[in-house]
Predict the structure of Carbon-nitrogen hydrolase.
Amino acid sequence: MVAVTVAQLPLVIGEREHNLSLAAEAVLAAPRGIVVLPELLNSGYCFRDTEESRALAEPLDGPSVRALTELAARTGSTLVASLAILEPAAGPGVASQSEPARPPERVVNVAVVVEAEGIVGRYTKVHLWAREPEHFVAGTDLPALVPSQFGRLGLMVCYDLEFPEFTRMAALAGADLIVAPVNWPLEPRPEGSRAREQIVVEAAARQNRVAFAVCDRTGAERLGEGVGSDWVGGSIIVGQDGFPLTPTAYGRPALLSAEVDLEASRDKALGPFNDVVRDRRPEVYGF
Amino acid sequence: MVAVTVAQLPLVIGEREHNLSLAAEAVLAAPRGIVVLPELLNSGYCFRDTEESRALAEPLDGPSVRALTELAARTGSTLVASLAILEPAAGPGVASQSEPARPPERVVNVAVVVEAEGIVGRYTKVHLWAREPEHFVAGTDLPALVPSQFGRLGLMVCYDLEFPEFTRMAALAGADLIVAPVNWPLEPRPEGSRAREQIVVEAAARQNRVAFAVCDRTGAERLGEGVGSDWVGGSIIVGQDGFPLTPTAYGRPALLSAEVDLEASRDKALGPFNDVVRDRRPEVYGF
């Protein structure tokens, strides 16, 4: 059994130091294990324009990964977050009259797995939501399978979860726990209903017999400014049977932990006769 | 808008006439539209042995399809059910001392769509649950896309729904409504939780922006006899946003109807910027 925690934090756009201090507080309070933090932990989400998203991004060896590495070293935990990252891009440099040519850079939404020795795995978000293509270049690789100290983590980000192909592939690759930092925008839902984003995760856990740890955020950003959003606050840990292991904490900060049997994700049996992987019929699907 | 009904019937194993009369009562009481009946409507589910399943199966032009055709003609509705069917099989005939060689036959779990003129579409269950392989030969074709009078029906059966590849393919093929007769075996679940089988359907509806009509059954069969089962009674109609359009009627007979906007399944937009089909990244998945 591994202690898994999702830290639903009230991030503030543009306030990296504040956001990192919220993360530090949560990681120090969580039991040693796997701690998942929200998407775009360093920057916030509702950028006014591309100048702002570029200004809030940082190199992969920048202050956020350094802070997470220190926290991982101090606690012995494995930390997961997504960050707005500025990375070298292929192509010609850009020159101007006043400056020499610089190598081009691009902004990406990168999920990292950090342990005491630094980054042990990374993944660039493939499925971009809403206006994200204005700010981020989409990734081109499958979910990372990261061999952490506690088990194999399947790493993806937010909207990626809506694609059943993607969660299936992470499970087939051998993930013990699919970890996903998210920022789920709040949409109206019928009274008493669970958020559909959570339902999608619960279904994927059951259909793939794999555990999930998904970390959402709180703290409405720039409402009324056109680019703004509030958030579901639907952070959730789900067992291999598709039932949540954590209570809901809609719309408020929360630190939710559960003991998760990661080994159980390697057993794909569904009842005494069936197996959700062996029962697939690739010869019928054609893939 | 089309009136869609799921008829959660208390079937009795081995009692075809009784089961067909329950179906008739339900279809006559339902509003004209699409009426989905349970899996293995003609036979029941918990067979003692292969002799029994073979004896309860019937040809595709047998009494059950005849009865459904008459009901469709009388009501103008489109009917969906799955039946235990005896069909010709390839291979050498079987001879015995007392009888001449007969063409070989096999038993299959076939979903049919029936209108006034008879069968307009059929599909043989591909993913077999528990002991079904002892009784049924598995199908080898994708979900049928059936052009009914009310719209294009994607046709599958019970355990097929657990495979996200399958529901995805039915949606990509252009289903306006995915219809599935099921017999969901009752398993314990945490107090107050919805059945995971329903969650899987709700998630697939949202992820594919397609409506579902899934018809379960009631009437525990042969409990305590080893082969027996009780049933969830989780019949459900779900809209393209993944929210149920019908209340739950766990463990009791029920006729659940909803007006469903089938046209809306052709619009795959999720919010103003996204589209669940266009946003797929086949070049990343490799299929």
About this structure: The CA atoms of residues 93 and 242 of chain A lie 49 Å apart. Residues 2-87+106-266 of chain A form a domain with the Nitrilase/N-carbamoyl-D-aminoacid amidohydrolase fold (CATH 3.60.110.10). Chain A has a mean pLDDT of 96. The two ends of chain A are 34 Å apart (CA to CA).
